[in-house]
Amino acid sequence: MKQASKKAHLLMIIFSILSTFSLKGRHPFRLPNLDFPVIKVAWNTNSKTYSLRTPYVRLHPLFTFKTEDFNEYVLPEKISYLNNSEKFMHREHLSDLIEQALHEIKQRKKSIKKNKQLKHFKVLQHKNFNYKKSCGLIVLKFNDYPLVVKLFLEQPSTFLDFRATGIEPMFFFYMGGGANRHLSGFTRIKNREAIIDKVKQQDRWRDYVTFPRKWFWFPRKQKNMILRAHNLAGHDTIQTIIPGVYAIIADEVDMKKDVVEIPHKIKSKMIMQLCNDLDMFIDPHEKNYVFSKNTHSDRFKITIVDTEHFPTMVGILKEKNFKNHSRWYVYLAGKCVHDMYLQTKRDLFNAQGKISALALM
């Protein structure tokens, strides 16, 4: 499985290099195809508009989400500690710390990138974050609280720049019809609920799969982006409004405490079996699953850390099952090649209005 993963990763790198040429390669005097959709982004305050004309975008996921959809899941005024229901963390204080982190990220770019440390946080992951442009996804851990913050930052000048935050986001753009981390972040809590419902219907997983709690967070002075499309999926014009900055706050999952050692082959098989039973709503990457001791039984429990809706990210339109991780990686590599290089204009046009059978609606 590791060997197949390395091969798939190598193929992705090669495709990314080629894409900078083949997908952009057109004669300098050739006029743009006016039949292609145009996507425009601006702040909702009559600011400068940034646009992209491309045949690779689809109605879903670009226009599936809007800011007001997330009010139901906003961080409450206080939340209890996971293992101590009588001890609380307060939203106002947590918000102050996150706001300070936002300021630090924009002002101390080089220092944070090098040391992975802020005043009140530690950087857990920043592979899809562009420090120079202050855009993308950066994952932080509170120093003093058992919480993780997935912080999403975009602005009109960067939202359509799908090459700005690494190799993976570029593939997601082509495979997911314009998908990016900013959009897929909106799926994480709703998908968590969908997965919980699916797990409840599975006898073999019902008592053994757990999830960290999750909430949305927005800055006090929130700025929204207006996302518009022209000539997309039969619409002359369509628009939605999404936040420029938001975060998902979740319980920290200890990756080392009470971890159960399981042979890699068995662990890999169980993860793929679980993902198949959940209709591949989540990424089967092994780092997304923590196997630990179950205090209520002799069997271990599985904590699903990342609940991003994977069909949205990679554009899976119908239910699929995979025997193992090798076949999963081969499928992704093949789909990537097809979506980037082997679609005709007619294929791309017909795909604009397609909604996945696995979509979160």
Structural category is alpha+beta
Largest sheet: 6 strands, antiparallel
**DSSP summary: helix tally:** 12
Shape: globular
Distance between the termini: 33 Å
Counted up, domains total 1
Rg from alpha-carbon coordinates: 21 Å
Low-confidence stretches: none
Global mean pLDDT: 91
Number of strands: 15
Instruction: Tell me the series of helices and strands, N- to C-terminal.
Output: HEEHEEHHEEEEHHHHEEEEEHEEHHH
Q: What is the helical fraction, as a range of percent?
A: 25-40%
Please indicate the percent range of residues in DSSP E strands (runs of 2 or more).
15-25%
Q: What does it look like?
A:
This protein has 361 residues and is an alpha+beta fold. The protein has one domain (2-19, 36-351). Helix content is 34%, strand content 23%. It contains 12 helices and 15 strands. It has helices at residues 2-22, 59-62, 91-107, 109-115, 156-159, 167-175, 181-184, 187-200, 264-277, 310-314, 325-341, 345-351, and strands at 38-43, 50-53, 78-81, 84-90, 121-125, 129-130, 135-142, 147-153, 209-210, 214-217, 224-232, 235-243, 245-251, 289-292, 301-304. Strands 5, 6, 7, 8, 10 and 13 form a 6-stranded antiparallel sheet that branches. It is globular. The mean pLDDT is 91.
